[in-house]
Every structure is written in structure tokens, then in C-alpha cells.
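hey
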């Protein structure tokens, strides 16, 4: 298993994994991802914020990171944090606890970038994801109504989000 930055050659596979994730969200009757703009993914790749887990020369999982997420985290955005978005796994690697691998990587990534927290959100109150992310080491901080979703992907419109956090200092120190 290797964690690497995604490249422009990965864009087709990234969108394939997003489609699989969205189809799964439809089956589960939870909030679904919209079709993301290709330019969003290209920008993340250019800025080295789009990541992948590679196993046996296949992309097993993708996600994006940022150090800034003010519309979702509002006043807490000033905390030094790495934010994880759009985790999408290849079903061929189901059951391999890839989010736990991302968490382990994110701890090192956060520390090497001077951050104290690893954070993520999910739209709505998806109890399955809440249970899964807490099993992976995140604290569930509760549900929050978003105030300003201008410029965010469409699934955030008029939504509440479940917020999750890991304090890197508590885990690593």
C-alpha cells in the first residue's frame, strides 16, 4: 500500500469512484454527492491536495485535503487543521479499513504541516458514517446547520453537516 498525490492521469478513475460512491449513497437513501466539476479536481491535483491509496497498481481510494474550510467550520476554521473531503473507495478493496489508513497518514501529514487537528464533515445525520468515522478514531462533534453555502458543492445547500475531529496532539503526544 502506498499513499501518493493523484495526477491528471487519475482523473477518469477519480470520477469513476465518485460515481460508485454516489450510486451507493442513492441505495442507502442518504444525501448524494452532486457531479463535481472537473476543474475542482484539476485544481486539487495542481495544488497537490488530491490523494490516492495505491494497492497492487490499482487506485484503492481517493480523497482531497485543504487547510482552510471556513464555510463549514466557521469560527473554528482559525484552528490549525487539515480538512479531509470526498473519500471514495474502490469496491474491490472493500473491508480493508482504508479510512483507518487515511487517518494514520493524516496524523503524520498534519504534524508535518504544523496542524493540531484532522477534521472532516458529512452532509446530514448519516448514522452509519457517524459510527464508522468514530470507529476510525474521530470524535463526533455533532450536527451543525450551515449558514453560507455559496460556492460549496450543491449537496451542501440548505444542509446540516455532521462534524468530526481528531486532536493530533492527544493521539501522537
Amino acid at each position: 500500500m502506498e499513499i501518493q498525490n493523484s495526477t491528471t492521469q487519475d482523473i477518469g478513475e477519480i470520477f469513476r469512484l465518485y460515481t460508485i460512491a454516489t450510486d451507493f449513497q442513492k441505495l442507502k437513501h442518504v444525501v448524494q454527492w452532486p457531479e463535481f466539476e472537473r476543474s475542482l479536481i484539476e485544481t486539487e491535483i495542481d495544488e497537490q491536495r488530491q490523494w490516492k491509496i495505491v494497492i497492487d497498481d490499482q487506485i484503492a481510494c481517493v480523497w482531497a485535503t485543504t487547510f482552510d474550510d471556513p464555510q463549514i467550520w466557521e469560527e473554528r476554521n482559525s484552528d490549525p487543521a487539515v480538512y479531509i473531503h470526498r473519500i471514495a473507495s474502490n469496491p474491490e478493496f472493500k473491508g480493508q479499513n482504508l479510512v483507518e489508513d487515511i487517518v494514520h497518514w493524516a496524523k503524520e501529514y498534519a504534524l508535518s504541516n504544523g496542524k493540531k487537528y484532522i477534521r472532516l464533515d458529512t452532509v446530514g445525520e448519516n448514522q452509519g458514517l457517524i459510527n464508522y468515522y468514530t470507529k476510525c478514531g474521530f470524535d463526533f462533534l455533532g450536527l451543525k446547520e450551515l449558514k453560507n453555502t455559496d460556492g460549496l458543492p450543491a449537496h451542501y445547500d440548505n444542509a446540516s453537516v455532521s462534524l468530526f475531529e481528531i486532536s493530533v496532539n492527544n493521539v501522537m503526544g
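The two ends are 26 Å apart (CA to CA). The first strand starts at residue 2 and ends at 5.
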